[in-house]
Amino acid sequence: MVSSETMRQRGRRKGGGNEGSDGMRKLLLGLGFLVQGFRCFPWMAVNFFLKDGLKVDPSTLQILQSSANLPMVAKPFYGILSDSFYIFGQHRVPYIAFGAFLQAVSWIAIFLSPSNISFFTITLYLLLGNLGASVVEVANDAMVAELGKPPSSSSKNRQNSSSGQLQSFVWIASSVGGVLGNLAGGIAIDRFSPQVMFLMFGILLSIQFLVTIFIHENSLDLPKSPSNRGIKKQLSELLAALQKPEIYYSIIWFAASYAMIPALTGTMFYYQTQHLGIESSVLGISKVFGQAAMLLWGVIYNKNLKSMSPRKLISAIQATMAVFMFSDFLFVKGVYRMFGIPDSLYVVLFSGLLEVLYFFKILPFTVVMAQLCPPGCEGSVMAFLMSALALALIISGCLGVALSSFFQVTGNDFSGLPHALLIQAVCTLLPVHWSSCIPDGIKPKTKAKEG
């Protein structure tokens, strides 16, 4: 009698299992990236809770926004664990479930806390939530990298291995989550307390956890890799991969292109809400507009820009960011107001777009890195990349606080903000000069000659 496992393997060889495994992969990854994009929903509530509830100043808000990324810096460790150790015979799914569980506990704990919760306590809860989010992101990114490699002679039938296709799918899922999160956040912030919004997101994470634990990795048809290879071996393979010039030069440029830009997000949030009196619903619409642009970017990239030189595309995005930041300088100086453009209209059309434009280059860059990753350490390399990004964002936030302090920008005095924005725009343009560090295209591997 033929076992069910043998029949499943035969079905996969005949291609009958491809459709089912493709659907399960899209369910798991689509839900994961959708929830990841929806994280803007509770974080919008966090910003208003800190500003109106705990009465923190712009610098303190920005320090929290940056320091909350600290768990993201340890992503290589999570990646090595994910690459090295199987849990109950599964490589990635248990880590996704564990991360979703940590996040649910974190946000529900904030909901259950008293309204006068201390700044220190809420910071700890947010760090715990971001720890869970980083574990989920590492496992999801590793799966995308594994499935996103160019097809080889041994995997001709893999539907999702065409360059950039799966990356575009999860990018779109994340963007849809961002659109829904910002739209719902803009509406909910005026109707519910921040604590209720924390509970709503905790419930969503609980649903993700329950869905994940009922998906077995065998149904995903992931590429096979040696199990339980050990941390030491996995670390040595990660170090070997990072010693490749095309990998470490790219990661250094990518991280530096964020780290050298002084982030002024907290200051701009206070300028728009405190100084200009922009309503929360307008900010929500602005972020929805930005996330819609992010969604459109994923579609455009997948259809028209995958074949374009990554170096030229990423450099163009970097230069466009500088242009938009200079536009913020004109906005704060009142130039657009002189031409009859209302502040709320500018915030909707440009502020939300600039916020997501900051991350446009991640999509083409991760496509390049997925193609450069040596087999077996996709989780480690992609986690190292995201860790470098997290560290760069922390440095960027600290530079932004220092820049605001240098020009004496406070919650009530924004006279020095135009000068800070001008310096920010110049710093954004500088990395274009070193864009030669980015690979100018990945050549597909030639098939081995048959014996």
Which features does this protein show?
451 residues, mainly alpha, Growth Hormone, Chain: A, 20 helices, 71% helix, disordered N terminus, transmembrane
Commentary on this structure:
It is found in: Membrane. Keywords: Membrane, Transmembrane, Transmembrane helix, Transport. With 451 residues, the protein is mainly α. The protein folds into two domains: 29-149 and 161-221, MFS general substrate transporter like domains (Growth Hormone, Chain: A, Up-down Bundle); 229-438, MFS general substrate transporter like domains (Growth Hormone, Chain: A). Helix content is 71%, strand content 0%. The chain has helices at 4-13, 18-38, 40-53, 58-67, 70-73, 75-84, 93-112, 119-147, 165-188, 194-213, 231-242, 245-259, 265-275, 280-305, 310-332, 335-338, 343-357, 362-372, 378-406, 417-429.
**Helical segment tally?**
20
The CA-CA distance between the termini, in Å, is 36 Å
CATH class of the largest domain: Mainly Alpha
**Beta strand %:** under 5%
Helix content: over 70%
Q: How is the main sheet built?
A: none
Order of helices and strands: HHHHHHHHHHHHHHHHHHHH
Task: Look up the CATH topology of the largest domain.
Answer: Growth Hormone, Chain: A
The average pLDDT score comes to 81
**Spans of at least 5 consecutive residues with low confidence:** 1-17, 153-163, 444-451
* Structural Rg: 22 Å
What's the assembly state of these chains? single chain
Structural class, from helix and strand content?
mainly alpha
- CATH homologous superfamily label of the largest domain: MFS general substrate transporter like domains
CATH architecture of the largest domain: Up-down Bundle
Number of domains: 2
DSSP E strands, number: 0
**What best-fitting shape do the alpha-carbon axes yield?**
globular
Keywords: Membrane, Transmembrane, Transmembrane helix, Transport
Region (Disordered): 1-20
Main location: membrane
GO molecular function: folic acid transmembrane transporter activity
